[in-house]
Design brief:
There is one protein chain. Helix 1 (16-35) links the parallel strand 1 and strand 2 (39-45). This protein starts with a strand and ends with a helix. The strands form 3 sheets. Strands 8, 9, 10, 11, 12 and 13 form a 6-stranded antiparallel sheet that branches. Helices cover 40% and strands 20% of the residues. By secondary structure, the protein is of the alpha+beta class. The chain is globular and about 55 Å long. The chain folds into 3 domains: 2-90; 92-118 and 182-199 and 235-336, 2-Layer Sandwich (D-amino Acid Aminotransferase, Chain A, domain 1); 120-180, ATP-grasp fold, A domain (Dna Ligase, domain 1). Bound molecules: adenosine-5'-diphosphate and magnesium ion (MG).
Length: 336
Amino acid sequence: MKVAILFDAGSEEWSPQDVAAVVSNVHEVRDVLRRRGHEVELLPVRHGDFRWLSRVRRADLVFNLCEGINGHARFEDLVVSTLELTGVPFTGCRTWPTAICHRKHVANTLLSAAGLPVPAFTLAQDNKTPTDFPLPAIVKPAAEDASVGIDNGAICTSKRALKRRVGQMLEQFDEVVVQEYVPGREFNVGFVGKRMLPIAEIRFETLPQGSWPIVSYAAKWIPDSPEYAGTVPVCPAELDNELQQRIAGVARQAWDHMAEAEGYGRVDLRVTPEGQPYVLEVNPTPDLSSNAGLARMGRAFGWSYDDLVMQIVDEALMRSQSHRAAAVLVSGVSAA
Ligand SMILES: Nc1ncnc2c1ncn2[C@@H]1O[C@H](COP(=O)(O)OP(=O)(O)O)[C@@H](O)[C@H]1O
Ligand SMILES: [Mg+2]
């Protein structure tokens, strides 16, 4: 099979580490596909340059690792929708989940309308700070991911601190979500298509005194930081049966509702000390590096990294076949 791996060509602002992170995952996936005997082409995507598109149309499958164009995450949606138009099978989520989950208030509104437990939230924009919001509250950019804008100061315990933080965030970001802070444990649930992987927990016991137990930017991206050392993923999570079922049930509903259980993704949740789960977010097509969360969950399920990549390929091919079969059925019905 001819497989095209799509990825963001980056921008001049990218650090050597940013480039290395993308390239190393592209190479990991390329190596798996080559080991399985596939012909692989690497296709960097650049703004205003559509050569990748004509090459995609000659592929049997696109492995989509493109998280944006020139480092701008908002273009990820457009790459996915272009792929949908070509009709070539592609890995990962479709346009709708990719686009809505890029804006936290939109995703939260849809989740909550579907009856899923979401912490109370409001949107701050145009330099307006919400008054009388329940405290403590966490302030996060509405259209970022990867914990951008989240540090210990993101959690506000007074009206004054909230006003200050929202003001600071609005200087950098157009839209900011203020959300009720959920105390308790944090869990991630991974999915490949309809298949749920073992639940992972992020443990915070070894964070320095005085730090809020959250996955901050430093916890995700700065290996030498105390936050990184103090946020420890454990998979499978230690859970009693009842809580495990409750978390799995909420995560599955969120995944089905937002992504129609297509592609691959990760649902992030917090569970209060009383045992009430809350969905923080659904992440369509998350980081697929062999050292990232989804690969860890795959290993706990018994999949090597190669297995995970090939499961993702199978899901894409099966999905495209079933969409094609449905299209044939519909055209048959309308022609009759
Ligand atoms: N409402 C909340 N209550 C408690 N912690 C939260 C809340 N929202 C976010 N966090 C913390 O911040 C981290 C990043 O927030 P998240 O909504 O997942 O955004 P991102 O897209 O940046 O990952 C979470 O993993 C969690 O630790
Ligand atoms: Mg998250």
